[in-house]
Amino acid sequence: QVGQLAATYLLDRGFRHFGFFGDSQRDFSLQREASFRAAIEAARWSIALSSVMFRGASVALPPARWACRSS
After folding, report:
1. How many C-beta neighbours within 10 Å does residue 4 have?
2. Which of 19, 26, 48, 56 has its CA 20 to 30 A from that of 34?
3. What is the DSSP string of 2-69?
4. Can you tell me the distance from the alpha carbon of 28 to that of 3, in angstroms, rounded to the nearest whole number?
5. Going by DSSP bridges, is the β-strand pair 64-69/19-20 parallel, antiparallel, or unpaired?
6. Is the pTM above the cut of 0.85?
């Protein structure tokens, strides 16, 4: 899965703050988010939600998703 590969790549390189930006209207993007989220959570991180809006965009953009260390 693409999302899992991306998360593993970032985790292996010591990154500790993550974001996911996708299209909530596309199945492939939802699948990428799910596999990204699963890999981050398997590494004992959690995903928090943050909305991002761009003025003038023709399509409403989904929220960005940021990871933070679990307690």
Report:
1. 17
2. 56
3. HHHHHHHHHHHTT----EE---TT-HHHHHHHHHHHHHHHHTTEEEEEE----TT-SSPPPPEEEEEE
4. 10
5. antiparallel
6. no
Check residue 71 and give its pLDDT: 43
CB within 8 A of 25, min separation 6: which ones?
Answer: 59
Greater pLDDT, 11 or 30? 11
Phi, then psi, of 18 in degrees rounded to 5: -130, 155
Mean pLDDT of 16-39: 85
Share of the chain above pLDDT 90, in %: 31
Q: What is the mean pLDDT of residues 28-49?
A: 86
